[in-house]
Fold these 4 entries.
Entry 1:
Amino acid sequence: MAAIKKVKPDVVVLCTLSSLQAIMPQLETVLSSACPSSPPRRSWPYPYYSNKKLAKKIDELAKKAKVAVAGTGVNPGFVMDALPITLSGACERVDAIRIDRIQDASTRRLPFQKKIGSGLTVQQFQEKVNAGTVRHVD
């Protein structure tokens, strides 16, 4: 909050956590300073669909502060959804759109590697999949 008061930015772009619930304290701080915000995270493009209660709270806080909150989502919200749709708008005809996401997890932080099952044997990985413990979204 001190940084926001000192700098007085035109907009705050929150690039921290993926979970809408986890980012709420940060967003509340930003909105309490009456600063517009754009949290570009994957859980943000359609918050009313994914979490109506928090979406309503964000809407109320933004209205109270008289600022906008634009949840764009970068991955996949922007890169894999909005960008291809926007780019195809200039086309007369689109037969198909294919988006492949390839990521080398070995260069990512260890907690992420563990979360997605990197380094496991096929059997260990399948066991975690069956148990529902292999995941990507925070």
Note: Helices lie at 2-7, 20-32, 47-50, 52-65, 77-88, 110-116, 122-131.
Entry 2:
Amino acid sequence: MASSRDDFVIAIRSAFLKKKDKQKFSLLSLIFLSIFIIILSSLDFKIIKIVKSGINEIIYRSSFFISIPENKIKDINKQFKIHFKIYDNYQNIQSELKFLKQEKLLNSFLKQENKKLKKLMNESIGSDEIIAKVLIDKESPFLKSIILNKGSRDKVKIGMAIVDGTYLVGKIIEVNFTNSRALLLTDFNSKIPVILEPLGIQAIASGVGKDYGNIQYSREKYKESFKTNEVIVYTSGLGNLFKPGMPVGKILKDNRSRIDFFSDFSQLEYVKISSYNFKGSD
């Protein structure tokens, strides 16, 4: 039993030794073959040139076909890079376009603001009017007022008139250093002396908390004096509150108690703060 095991081990070793001898022989064969080919290539034999040319042709053709997948992969990779670069450029252009649209809208808004301010400035040349921007519109069932961005540092005083274009819209009732508050004609507490033209009748215009007003007091029965389709309401100048002749609104013949104000109080952006010095006043 032991002898058979030893014979098996010896057989395996001999096989490995034979394999190792075969590997050595193969390596030596390749070395000699290479030397032989180098010697032949140095000789100027026609057959050698044909064989060499054929081998080169096979190698070049093989290299070309082998390089096709590699070149294709390179082209695909290049196309991907170009695609991503174009996509990045597209994203940048979209961002710039969005920014430019926002700038255009902002510039358009500023142009409109400048036009309004220019118009107000031209109308205010040579007068004591102060141009103010409406900051807050305080509106409730009982309070109709606006906050303006002008105050005592701008020489704003209580009682000054608030004018929208040429129309009276209210008066200053509170003044701080940098801002002020104006009571609108629509407020319940607003009562101003007016004159109804062409009737020539003195009256009191009162706010009702809505976008219109009422004639609250009148010395004469003006409703029976209507001879036209409408009557214009102006400030009368009585009581030294406002200068006379400032347009306020109109009264239509079919509703003789209601004053439709000329200004839309919900759309006020810029107003003029106007002062008027009566004779004998400071």
Note: DSSP finds two helices and twelve strands in the chain.
Entry 3:
Amino acid sequence: MYPVKFDNISKDYSGNRVLDNINFHIEENKITSIIGRSGSGKSTILKTINGLIKPSSGKVIVFDQEIDYGHIHELRLQIGYSVQGTGLFPHMNVNENIAILARLKKEWSKDKIENRTEHLMNLVSLPSEFRSKYPYQLSGGEQQRVGICRAMMLNPRIFLLDEAFGALDPTTKNEIHKELLKIQTTEPRTIVLVTHDLREAFKLADIIIIIDKGIIQQIGTEEEIMNQPSNDFVKYFIKSQFD
């Protein structure tokens, strides 16, 4: 089973084609990076996986079933979603931000929420005394860790990261990368990472999808992309990233 499959997916906005007949699948319990320049369609793919965007044509298949947009809430509870800037609620402290999805489900006991929160904070190296802090009291890296904890709270089968580390300084970004890889070792799951940084994709991902102008240019491992670029665009993209 592939957790995600795109079957001839296209998406148009006001006559502008953002995704053009996209076909691919995502490997289970691996990190897949979707990479491209600004406006390439990579974030649109991520939002389509999560049901935030409905394609103009084609089928999105998640967990072996075509997305049912009439019951999208049930699907989203199985998908963690973390974006650049974290989207933390400023009026909630760290503990409340992390636990909010579990509290909304209502079937989670206080002990279960407490244990899961503590486990996740340990995973991303957040001290327990941070529970009472508010987002404005945290650094960018600390906020990103809280955002990851919140997205992981319900133990989602798929974890989507949309330029989640783009605003971080290089040292903090490196620390967060280490935490993400630690999470993947401890709680392996299907992760889809959108980035414009090929170095980040090579560092984190098992599989890389390069997209440009809504068209997939190449799918492969780091070795395949570096040694066997599929076309002139991929060659140019690699060169532009490493010059």
Note: The beta strands are 4-13, 16-26, 31-35, 57-62, 65-66, 79-83, 158-162, 190-195, 207-212, 215-220.
Entry 4:
Amino acid sequence: MRVLITGVTGFVGSHLVDYINTLGGCQVFGTKRRRSPLDNLHSPVELIDCELTDYRSVENAIMESRPDRIFHLAAQSYVPQSWDAPEHTLDNNIQSTLNILEAILHCDPSIRLQVAGSSEEYGIVLPHECPITEEQPLRPLSPYGVSKVACDLLSRQYAKSYDLHVVVTRAFNHTGPRRGEVFATSNFAKQIAEIEAGKCNPYIQVGNLNARRDWTDVRDIVRAYWLALDCCDSGSVYNIASGSAVTIGDMLNQLLLLSTADIKITHDPSRMRPSDVPLLLGDSTAFSALTGWTPSIPFSQTLADLLNYWRSSVLC
């Protein structure tokens, strides 16, 4: 089987490469930009330079790799940046998705496509609406969330209009080794590792600690993405979540308990968002019923692995 992954050099993409290579019988290709760092890649993948916002570049990547499956993971995915650069976020995420759909339609309509949506599409969720099912109204609270709603709807429209095999997944928060340092779990872990290494003062900078999030280990998420194209219905959308919500403050406390350093918490107003989703708690019953998937890695193990990743990184 030939597999193409967009955004292969990123956090989730690199873990998906690792997982697919354990399956055997697959040749893995991945798109990257010329300036993309390759530090996350630890297993075999054939890299293709591709600018996803340029249709011809996408078409060339598909013609070169001739994939049976495409996993579309590439995106501007940092929510705070979407407020600073809303036009870039919308253009990048929507145009990239459109180009992939169009290229599949014109190059090989038999290709199976997984499109990575996001729990950020749900936005404002009232307490009585949790856990969140796929029928929950979409009320995004950020330009990033809006961009993902557009990609979600566009993908399902192409599936229905042109009989393409497209599955949209809405993964809730996920983390683990290699997570970018701008995201809360990784940012806290990096700060702790730097404090332990004596590289900064023993004060950890935080923003809103009250938001509750549903975290899953990235290694469980990529396994779910593979199953989505094995088992799920084309033109449909599926939540992928642990079904358990933890406040950002409790997550931070779990990380601090893994360290022997004496660390104080200080609030940094610049880390606060213009608006924040107070609760994201997912229901992945529909996905699990079709695939048999359940998370296998405890959150405590995920945080330990993440902290150890940053301990190794800050010493390099």
Note: The chain has ten helices and 13 strands.
